[in-house]
Amino acid sequence: MPAELKSISHGQTMVLTLSNPEHRNALGPEIYAAGVEALSVAESSPDVRSVVITGEGSTFCAGGNLLRLKESRALSPQVPAQSVESLHNWIEAIRTFPKPVIAAVEGAAAGAGFSLALACDLVVAARNAVFVMAYSNVALSPDGGASWSLSRALPRQLAAELLLLGERMPPERLHSLGLVNRLVDAGQALAEALALAERLNARAPNALASIKELVNDAPGNTLTQQLASERDHFVKNLFHANAGIGIDAFLNKQTPGYH
């Protein structure tokens, strides 16, 4: 069966499922293109307030298909370069998507599968999950923004350890390092991710979009620049209809219903 990205709705959450069971949900160009398209549809739909990315069966994602990579060595370097660029388009689409994206990880998240999880805003991992930056194990360097994500989230020595040694990392260690938000029992990652998504769906979408943008931009800004950006977002959100709904609901001890 060909690799595909399945999409279903769960309330106000779009669930994207990596489906390539013969190759442990390995990634490929068809999945990258489908991922970009799905996020474009979700961004323009007011019925979608969050996205969950998960893997079919007991594996999140084994990363790139090594058989396909081996075959690409006989082709022009332009061919794998275009494939990697397609992956990067999806990673960038996830990072800049204005709604929350949650990874629900069961089993292995290897190579680009690990990179994909790191691109998400929140990561829920089952205790049977295994994270591994497997690139150096087959004489490759990372893609999918792995070096960027890890270097932003961890001290240099820890980022280098994960990338240079390519060791299998248990979710408990990544949780202690702040890379995993929630640890759950095996088989419960998707349920927990959906529960988190439901909580986020109840919040004002415009405020969440501003928070994502502020967090994404902060490492590249000076304090003065970030303060100015926070001011502009705060004032914009203050004059959004949702701020009136939220403030009134809080003062009247009611549950807000945001647009």
Automatic annotation (TrEMBL):
GO terms for molecular function: lyase activity. InterPro entries: ClpP/crotonase-like_dom_sf, Enoyl-CoA_hyd/isom_CS, Enoyl-CoA_hydra/iso, Enoyl-CoA_hydra_C. It comes from Rhodoferax koreensis. GO terms for biological process: fatty acid beta-oxidation. Signal peptide: none annotated. The lineage of its organism: Bacteria, Pseudomonadati, Pseudomonadota, Betaproteobacteria, Burkholderiales. Belongs to the enoyl-CoA hydratase/isomerase family. The keyword Lyase applies. This is Enoyl-CoA hydratase. It holds the Pfam family ECH_1. Keywords: Lyase. The keyword Lyase applies.
